[in-house]
Amino acid sequence: MTPHSVYDHRVIMPTYIYETIPSRPDEVSRRFEVKQSMKESPLERDPETGVPVRRVISGGFAPLVGGGDSSSTPAPAPSRHSCGSACGCFGN
């Protein structure tokens, strides 16, 4: 058995965040997560409701920290809600 054969039976797929696209200004979008292969096309509709959706691009979890040079990006301020600063829900 080779060291890599332990992982041969596992398929690791990324989790993508989608949000519904409101059809009216007073409608609220709903966010949900879906595990998909990177080879799969993005969803076009919510699997539960059939409402059109778009994939949300998030920044991940690792903050960028300045390296002493003026072009470095500072780490973001800590979030006041549990889902992180990149989610876009603004604590709602």
Following the backbone from N to C, one meets helices and strands in this order, namely EEE
Beta content comes to 15-25%
Helix content: under 10%
User: What is the 3D form?
Assistant: flat
Spatial strand order of the main sheet:
2-1-3
First and last CA, distance: 50 Å
What is the makeup of the main sheet? 3 strands, antiparallel
- Total helices: the number is 0
Structural class: mainly beta
**Could you give the count of β-strands?**
3
Mean pLDDT: 75
Structural Rg: 18 Å
| Low confidence ranges | none
Q: Could you name the key traits of this structure?
A:
92 residues, 2 domains, mainly beta, single chain
Overall description:
- The chain has 92 residues and is an all-beta fold.
- The chain folds into two domains: 3-56, no CATH class; 64-92, no CATH class.
- It is 0% helix and 16% strand.
- It is built from no helices and three strands.
- The protein has a three-stranded antiparallel sheet with strand order 2-1-3, with no helix packed on it.
- The model has no long low-confidence stretch (mean pLDDT 75).
Could you write a compact summary of the structure shown?
With 92 residues, the protein is mainly beta. The chain has strands at 15-20, 31-35, 53-56.
